[in-house]
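Quick note —
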Amino acid sequence: MELKTVNELIGIVGEDYVITNPSQKISYMYDQVEMAMRPEANENSIVVKPKNTDEISKIMKYANEHNIVVVVRGGGTGLCGACTPVRESIILSTERLNKIIEIDEDNMVAVLEAGVTLYDLLEELENHEGVGFPVHPGDEGAQMGGMAVTNAGGARAVKHGVMRKHIQGMEVVLPSGKIMELGGKLIKNNAGYNLMQLIIGSEGTLAVVTKIILKIYPKDKYSATIIAPFESFDDASRAVLEILKSGVTPLAVEYQDKHLFVDTAKMLGTQWQAEKGNADLMIIISEKTEAALYETCSLINEICEKNNSYETLFAGKKSEQDELLLIRSQHYELIKDIIGHSFDTAVAVADVPAYLKELKSLAEEYNTITNITAHIADGNIHSDIVLVDGKMPPYAEELKEKIFKTCFKYNGTITGEHGIGKLRINDLKLQKSSTELDLMRGIKKLFDPNNILNPGTVIEV
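Predicted structure written out below.
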């Protein structure tokens, strides 16, 4: 990066908040994409850490006038390479925008700067009795601005939906440096096009989010976890559909290949208690009252038994639930060193059984294994291509295309929650029509005519 630009940025944010040292920059270059697939960062990029919206506005105005690429970085917990600067860039870190401005219990909203982490928010809400925020993508280091622009999901989407559902307002800085206030505390606001909804899920390509107004909710006080083992995946899937049609909405319904539950438990020094069966469901329930929790658990147990489950296991104590959730969440640590490319395709819930069968057949065709984890009650399937002798196998691209084609066969999507980023920018063309892609390019050009904000992400212009 030119010295003139470095000095300009120092003039805006101060010398302590512009990082040019290679050893200090490296931690800002990548997200959580697997090593074998991650895009390569341009190491001439520099990191700048503004403290507020005004400083971001000045940075964007300067960058736009001088055609300098800007890539916004939040918590770095993403899984599609969106925050990696593949061109020489200003990496704009939002970590100093970390103020919780207001918890407004009368309007049931939280007003936050974009760098507030999910952990920070949940910790603050502990000081407000009976109030919570439901979206949890799996890493509490995720920042709220990043969760907004990636439309973060996670296991709890069954009951609570994804991030888009919970954002009422935003403050954003456009690539030109102009500041916009979108939405607010209003529940109803039907004036004109909803620009905020375009920015949600745009992966840092349309604007820099600096502030968010989030809905908060009365917290469910009672929870339980049921492990339901089945001999056949078809029976397990049928049970899920019947649970959803019964009027019960679990917090989460998780499925993993049996070996992931068993081997992860062993890695953690414990044992997976569901010894029988080949297909286990982890069903998490939360309710406002103890009576409602008991009624829900009884109904779910009845449906599972009706669909040929073995004896279900019930965890009511928080410590027991935490142990089960840890086994579910730590499976990635078990397999991360053998993963070459991970997928997060999604299909309609009723199509999950047929889709998973075809995924397993594809694995057999290529003489490889599956590590399937599914948010089965919302249709989001995580699968992967396994490394061979530490390298990406020669059939990887062919297998990826077959996985996507199989997904499209069920009218699915190549990404249910991780996003397109830089990793799947060419794959998006497989799913979207030329008309849709042209509209996306047009939107990008309107927001960012000089293409300085995270170019090469989501859509090429």
